[in-house]
Design a protein that fits this description.
It is a single chain. The chain is built from 4 helices and 7 strands. The protein is an alpha+beta fold and 155 residues long.
Length: 155
């Protein structure tokens, strides 16, 4: 593993799902749609009913001789495009991991669509830099504010 570049691991085993739950809770500081901590029961229900695909991103810490989890992403097949969400662990922000996660998502060679809270300047910047285009702002059922859909189409 390159120590600077995060590597994606597909979420499939029980321990992966628990790590995903912990990551989603850690990145829920206004960056995601849920406002409360996700319980194990809620995660189990989600696991049994979702068709989304999920990945966890890790980097190799050579000084500690172990891998460190830095973020997650999910993809939802919407037919002609994939809708995505992602998060970067609070301790790992500012190190370029969000950019790497977005690049990983773009490697799927399908059009992508995501939503970003209007005030999440860091994520908006990462996505614009990666070639996404902001759409019109719109209100939705989530009380935290306004989100902006963004789209990217493969060349």
């Amino acid at each position: 593993m390159n120590p600077l570049y995060p590597h994606a691991f597909y979420v499939q085993f029980d321990e992966d799902w628990e790590l995903l739950r912990l990551l989603r809770n850690a990145t829920a500081d206004g960056m995601t749609r849920h406002q409360k901590e996700i319980s194990r029961v809620e995660q189990q229900y989600y696991r049994n009913t979702t068709k989304k695909r999920h990945w966890i991103f890790k980097v190799q810490d050579v000084t500690l001789a172990r891998s460190i989890t830095v973020g997650w992403c999910s993809l939802d097949d919407k037919g002609s495009y994939d809708e995505f969400s992602y998060g970067v662990s609070p301790f790992a922000r500012g190190n370029g991991y969000g950019k790497h996660i977005i690049e990983y998502l773009k490697s799927g060679h399908r059009p992508l669509r995501g939503e970003v809270w209007a005030w999440n300047d860091a994520s908006r910047h990462i996505m614009k830099k990666a070639g996404f285009v902001e759409g019109e702002k719109f209100h939705n059922q989530f009380p935290l504010g306004v989100i902006i859909p963004v789209e990217w189409k493969p060349e």
